[in-house]
Amino acid sequence: MKYVLVTGGVVSGLGKGVTASSIGVLLKACGLRVTSIKIDPYINTDAGTMSPFEHGEVFVLDDGGEVDLDLGNYERFLDITLTKDNNITTGKIYQQVINRERRGDYLGKTVQVVPHITDAIQEWIERVARIPVDGKEGPADVCVIELGGTIGDIESMPFIEALGQFSYRVGPGNFCLIHVSLVPVLNVVGEQKTKPTQHSVRELRGQGLTPNILACRSTTALDENVKAKLSQFCHVPQENIVTLYDVPNIWHIPLLLKDQKAHEGILKALNLSSTKEPSLREWTARATRCDLLHEPVRIAMVGKYTGLSDSYLSVLKALLHASVELGKKLIVDWVPACDLEDSSAKENPNAYKAAWKLLKGADGVLVPGGFGDRGVQGKILAAKYARENKVPYLGICLGMQTAVIEYARSVLGLRDANSTEFDANTKNPCVIFMPEGSKTHMGGTMRLGSRRTHFQSKECKSAKLYGNKSFIDERHRHRYEVNPDMIATFENAGLSFIGKDETGRRMEIVELPNHPYYIGAQFHPEFKSRPGKPSALFLGLIAAACRQLDTLIGNAPIKPPNGVASKKVRQNGKTKKPAKILSGGVYGYSNVLFKRFRFNRGL
């Protein structure tokens, strides 16, 4: 097994996850099988109990693991299926060591960070690296490991020590260290400054790790004299210093690494020889196509964590996969759910007017998942607006539940209808706590991971979008569900629950048949969306927002966006035709709220 470690210096949020994912893409293009591990130094056992404002979204895996959002990047870039053990945390390691100590496995020895914690880290890495994640038998050829945080963080010390021991044990021909660091440009002098990276590498070497490759984040490509200076002071060959500068969309990152021959440095450090030059023609075509999209589709995202886009990272990516598949430029209008509520009209009338203006100007409405009662009334109002005005609507998890509550209140006349999560004493509990849930322990007690949904009819929009399958497997994360005792009442009033679990008691998909597109899903379809393979329900939302749903469901060919196939591009002062556009989606980011590409989270 060969190992590639990606570390970060100077500041956090430089894009280690994107870099690690792109390295995996490059190695995969060289004919190697790749797996990934993310190390998070926080003491939490997993990401499940952390607020999205603290750490971004919680990404859910097939096995129910609640993990860091970077594992979502790995799955999307490499088209693999990871396990919860592919995310290592301080809490997991210490829990394992303490359990061993309680059993007496250490035979009376004093349990210490070295060697017991560091040994446990190394054992975990070796064990998980051998788990196949690409659907093939046997272990992968290369394991890409990302160490979260920044070199010098006190909580990372045990992992740095363990990885230093690990690199010595596996040998230099089996271990390659890539250090991602910042080379800022000061506006005052306009010069690329190397001192922060020099100090970062010195700190790294002082802790027993020497980088083989430097990946420098900067606004522009590094000057040759800057590379020469970094090489001299950081003891890294100049040809092994690559620049990761700002780019229009995420698909350019593997191309940057390839153009600078990063794969040659990695293969040399790992004593590997590639039998073929990595071909990234599909990636080039995706990047080009994403840059050329200009016909907009506007989606209103009504949520409670709209202040941090990372809170809905997978939802954004799923929207992008679908929009580019249909040749549209995605524009996301962030609508704080609280600002739609009547109380906001009195407290903050400007925010109230702005929120409703965005909602009414959208081509489609998406209400994502969430927990807690803040903003729920605003989500209910958004669902009502979309239902009454025939605006395409997709509700995910809580977004489905709020659509059901709104229908009960507005159509069934049950004014006090609610979820027991928000009103434990409601006389009309539309959404109830799951019987097997826990009210005392928060972590890992929800309905998590991949579960099966059976379609009750093949004539509904959802079944057609999923290719007329009889069942599907999607990932879940919830502890409340639609009350099965009220299903007959809802269906008699026109609301169709067309997706259920194998028992028929759990509602998975709800549709409004006489609406252009009004669908709620209890699961999270965004977690399995891939570039070129967009989630069916997101594809349906974008198609409905563009008035292409009938064409999509009827399997008729969808025309490429106007001008994309023939439009010429100016590159380096020359006029060129764009690269051939491959079928399938691409992966970019075009939210107008972000004027520049945000590299740090792979947007």
3D structure, described in words:
There is one protein chain. Residues 555-603 have low confidence and may be disordered. The protein is of the alpha/beta class and 603 residues long. The two termini are 31 Å apart. Helix 1 (16-29) packs across helix 9 (252-259), helix 5 crosses helix 6 (157-170) and helix 12 (313-325) crosses helix 19 (536-545). The protein is built from 20 helices and 25 strands. It has a 9-stranded mixed beta sheet with strand order 13-12-14-15-23-22-21-18-19, with helices on both faces.
What characteristics describe this protein?
single chain, 603 residues, alpha/beta, seven-stranded parallel β-sheet, 20 helices
Q: Secondary-structure map with pairings?
A:
Elements: E1 2-8, H1 16-29, E2 34-40, H2 52-55, E3 59-60, E4 66-67, H3 70-78, E5 87-89, H4 90-103, H5 113-129, E6 142-147, H6 157-170, E7 175-182, E8 185-186, E9 191-192, H7 195-206, E10 213-218, H8 224-234, E11 241-245, H9 252-259, H10 262-269, H11 281-292, E12 296-303, H12 313-325, E13 329-336, H13 342-347, H14 349-360, E14 364-367, H15 376-388, E15 393-396, H16 398-410, E16 418-419, E17 429-433, E18 447-455, H17 461-465, E19 471-478, E20 480-482, H18 487-492, E21 496-500, E22 507-511, E23 518-521, H19 536-545, H20 549-553, E24 569-571, E25 574-576
Parallel strand pairs: 1-6, 1-7, 2-5, 2-6, 7-10, 10-11, 12-13, 12-14, 14-15, 15-23, 16-17
Antiparallel strand pairs: 3-4, 8-9, 17-20, 18-19, 18-21, 21-22, 22-23, 24-25
